[in-house]
Specification:
This protein is α/β, with parallel strands linked by helices and about 325 residues long. It folds into two domains: about 150 residues, 3-Layer(aba) Sandwich (Rossmann fold), CATH 3.40.50.150; about 170 residues, Vaccinia Virus protein VP39 (Rossmann fold), CATH 3.40.50.150. A hairpin with a 2-residue loop joins strand 6 and strand 7. The longest helix is centred in the N-terminal third of the chain and has 14 residues.
Length: about 325
Amino acid sequence: MANPNARLSLALKACSSNVPENGAMIINANEATDYSRLGEAVCIQWFKPTCDRLIEKGLTTTQDFTSTANFALVEITRSKPQSLGLIAKAFDSIIENSILMVDGKKTDGIESHLKILRNLFDIDGVISKSHGKIFWFKKTQRPKILNQWLQGLEPATVDQGYKTRAGIFSANHIDKASALLLENLPNHLSGKGADLGAGWGYLSNELLKNNDKIKSICLVEADWNALNCAKLNINDSRAKFEWADATHHKDNGYDFIVMNPPFHQSRKAEPDIGKSFIQRASELLSPKGQLWMVANRQLAYETTLDTYFTAVNSITETPQFKVINASRPKKRIFK
């Protein structure tokens, strides 16, 4: 089993004389890695459940680069433009001659990042372990290409003028599953609604544009970057925005909920995430409320839907996706 702690521990030992006791910045910090050697570090993280777990471990979290550091560790993401942009931001945030470490799994492209950075900096050390690599270099002269990498973090325009950012779900186009759900939603949706796992706001925006009977929609999204794109995409006072794990959303009494729930956080399918969304939707809806959801066709959510709803209807199926309507949630204790 891959152990990111082993890589980081060896790297910090190798350059121990240049690692400060405090004042470090960890970008895309994760709860699986032990950062205690870095003292009172600031962790930059955008995924709410991960933030919550880091805080539980006593770490300070933020969502933006708001201070100067004397050491930086970048845990790369699966998005190359995002990772390069974060490396550029980290470079600009640390003081001269400080260490910048870059860590990641081979499956996330760490070797490609090492190759790129070798052409720009003198790499002081590289450690390969646990299906990944960690390497580091000192901040010296700033290459101009970092400006291009920073630009890769800025909102970009995709289909129909929507704004997205590198690293968020469906960053380059309107998600096909969400578009299918929208095509099959009824015109009579009204009252108080929620969009669980709202992403960058496509579903909610289209619903608000075309339906005056909707009083409000709460966009619940765990990815801080995606939610901020939703705020750029929606100019409607009926929209409310909540940075939260949808399965922990507290408000209830919804007349309708729409959702295209995620089914993985890593590369492996995790259908339990979608099942948790279904359960929470049943708890959040009013007795006459309705759930409208889309999912990958192969994901067996029907048993879970039958557990939490009295009526479950298949609306349409394609070779890839299925749209389901569930109504009359079964009464359960709200937690």
